[in-house]
Fold this protein.
Amino acid sequence: MSQISSIQRVEFQDRVRTALNDVNLQRAMAKAKSGFVDKRLEAKNALPEFDQIRDAARDIKDHVLSNLDTYLELYEEKVIENGGHVHWARDAEEACSIIAEICKASGARTVTKGKSMVSEEMYLNPALEAVGMEVVETDLGEYIVQLAGETPSHIIAPAVHKTREQITDLFHEHHSPLGYTDRVTQREALVNEARSVLRERFVSADVGITGANFLVAETGANVIVTNEGNGDLTSSLPKVHIVTAGIEKVIPSLEDLSVLLRVLARSATGQEFSAYTSIYSGPRRPEDGEGPEAYHVVLLDNGRSRMLGGDYQSMLRCIRCGACLNHCPVYGAIGGHAYGWIYPGPMGSVLTPLLNGFDSAVDLPNACTLNGRCKEVCPVRIPLSDLLLKHRTEQHERKLTSATSRWILNGWAWLVRRPRFYQAVMAIPLWTMNRVSRGSGGLRWIPFARGWTNTRDFPVPSRKSFLRQWHSKEKGHE
Amino acid sequence: MGISIVIVILMKIHQSNSPVTVGLFVTCLADLIRPQVAFAAVSLLENAQCEVRVPRGQSCCGQPALNSGDRANSIEIAKQVITEFSDMDYVVVPSGSCADTLKNKYPALFTKDMHWARRAQTLADKTWELTKFLYEKIGLKEIDATLDGVCTYHDSCTGLRELSIYEQPRELLKQVKGLRLKELKDSNVCCGFGGLFSLKYPDISTHLVSDKCTEICNSDADMVLGGDLGCLLNIAGRLRRDNKKARVFHIAEVLAGMTDGPAIGEPEESE
């Protein structure tokens, strides 16, 4: 077990180093950093009751999670009533095979996709390509990431790690064969080029797959929120629409939806409302002019039901707004890919070990300063930093941490619990450091603390600890 | 009836005359690395008519164990601190994160032990971070300190988010003669210290403290102040390595007028 964790630790530290040395990534992240934060704050300040709405949003999600079975069954009933189909997938593999079967049965060749993190969780694209489908991502960020052969690095801004120059290069490489031979560099021109390439894909697609921001139990509808309208074209143009969603996405009613939407966009992008908020409730009815002929919902468990009723249940409140990523200094420094799986940032560091196994990502809960900014901004008040600490406790109890670190911790705690002896023992490093530093104020090298001293001086401790000074003074008075 | 009223009044008079006893939780970093922070805290509290006591049986609040998920050791350390400070009226801590440990983390450790849960809560209820205590509890109005220069302030994460410490240090600093506060951009963003984090993930930690130091330099302030030594050691260590000019002090040192000597990480003056 500890061997596994040490291997992964090296991998994580390697990914971190690569990310920190990646000039393009650092440029892109620096540019994105304050934008999200400032805009959210502006949106929050413009709505005085924002915090009360957050409480209400939390309560709605908590209520659903306490009655999840009821709402899921109600939702399924409504979807069927509307003429749709509901499929239950225990894990990623099952979900992929259900979706592949639907595609094959409808004779599909081309599949368009709206942005869906749950489909990333399933590894859906490679699974569909393996059965001969051409899969086209239609969210601009996802499209960029797909062209680059990568995965999203942010749950709402998949290509946030790319600079405009990199996107120019990618488009030039992939669009030239389609007749777009001019090298476009401006933001608007890039968007227009992607739009016209994608437009043809929308029209020719046989199946459209979208995620869902919410599933509404009372109507059997799925709700998607986008800024590009790609989700709508993916949902309504192909003859088959497949919705993929985690089981925690269900909410009771449209009334509840209005509460959650008010915190979602504000937390995510600082918008009051996203440009497109669309509600789909099944296949085309006889009186409808357009819409898909078939409507399927694939509900994914993949470890979520295990979280119900446990210490981490509050994580299932997550509405995937990305605010915790945007406010996390560590995410801002290393970007999403360094986290190693599709969910990055604080929400990913909590979720990844829960969905993939506690020993799968030992570093993630530890690679956090516990600064609490994630918890502060979460629209549904998930105590993210507390959950990360809970993970650390879990790791310690399962002995997933290294034996050396536990040994050091025990030795240190033994000493700390004997204050007088501790004072005597600590006098030794104090004396040594003072000798070595020769009044320079800062040490440039300390054994076993090179992580610190490689890049920082260590301010030289006092010659005599406060407690020793204080108590010898007190004795002097007596 | 009459006698009991007299007794009650006499007791009140007695209470109001006997100074409040404040137990100083020194914190291990102030104790070992920057004792002047603790001396400054004592001076500020004594000037505010508190009777300061420094229990000998203290060392560390246990954050390294707590933040490593080591509950067993955390519980033992917590019990020791709770016992050591049990007969104080107040416990004052010159650090937001250590104060938060006593105030919010200890009670959560004893979910199954009602006796200790109650004792932990008693300690929690009387524990204060230094600037919060001086500003909110004492209502300190006059500070006899002078420091000429422009300072900027780093808001340490735990104090800011768990204890709502933001205006208290700023209000107190307004009373220091000659001092001008210039706000730091992203003052509420982590400096990358994070305790053991800075040793376990030094690359990320360095990136964050570099960002912090860039903002400090951009602010053109002569000094950067803060309420948590962990952050200040990290910031001072990085500034010194990069040969940057900004001086680093704990706010207690500034408020107590103890800024004549070397700032954190600076060479001794005799050299």
About this structure: Chain B has a mean pLDDT of 94. The first strand of chain B starts at residue 21 and ends at 24. Chain B has 14 helices and eight strands. Chain B touches chain A through 69 residues (CB under 8 Å).
